[in-house]
Amino acid sequence: MKTGKKVLTALLAAGLSFAMLTGMNPGKVEAAAKKYPALLKINDYYVLYTAPKAPYVDANYRTMIPLRSISELMGAKVSYDAKARTAAIEKDSVTVKFTIGSKSVSVNGVAGSMDTVPVMEQNSMFIPVSVLAGRLGIVSKWDQASQLYTLTGETLMQTDMIKYTLEDMEGGPFTAPPGKIISNDAFRPVSYTYDPGKGSFTVKAKNITGKDIPAGAADVAAYILYDDTLQFPPQERVRPAVRKEGTLEVTVKTETPSTPAYLLVKGRLLDRSEN
């Protein structure tokens, strides 16, 4: 037994891992599932996951989102100067410029400052969404209690994938919810878990109607958007009863090997009185 321990110690000292000794492949490591808070809402959609990294709150308590999302979800024209490490974001004749690592921000060439800095994360520039919204004049609201930042406007969420594919097909015979939509503001996602190994998202949403909701009426709809396609939630799925202030969890799995670009969620209430 002592000899066996000496051999194992010698092998480890030579740089061999326990995985090699047991025949396991150390090169294949599945990414662990991770839980994230719900931080951003644009019109009726809660914007949960955004590639390449979920929105997050930085050390200065600013909600940060990737530059790509600004273009695709907020309808702005975006350009990036890699040499200067500066992004120019243009919308409605207003151009806002941010520079990685700098507190300086300019609006139509007029310099100003902010209390945080844009950063590079996974080869993507992340911008403080509240600073950008304020400079562009987008209607916004911060809910301290829920830690949720909300943007509203007719020019937001107007990409072809959302406006035509998602919203036009949402009323189709195979994708429409089984009942009249009474409200798009009945459930608020509080968190979600992304498991890239299983290709699944699990959304935890809270009943914010102030009432008990009967079985069949809760409709937390999770849409997975990819670069060139969209995945609708199953039309026929379990919709349990939810008590006042209660929560429910909804899990959706990716149905394509493509990497998700976004996870968008609507927290709806359905009229099932005719069913």
UniProtKB/TrEMBL annotation:
Record's keyword terms, sorted: Signal
Signal peptide interval: 1-19
Domain Copper amine oxidase-like N-terminal stretches: 50-147
Residue runs in coiled coils: none
Pfam families: Cu_amine_oxidN1
InterPro entries: Cu_amine_oxidase-like_N (IPR012854), Mao_N_sf (IPR036582)
Name listed for the protein in its UniProt record: Copper amine oxidase N-terminal domain-containing protein
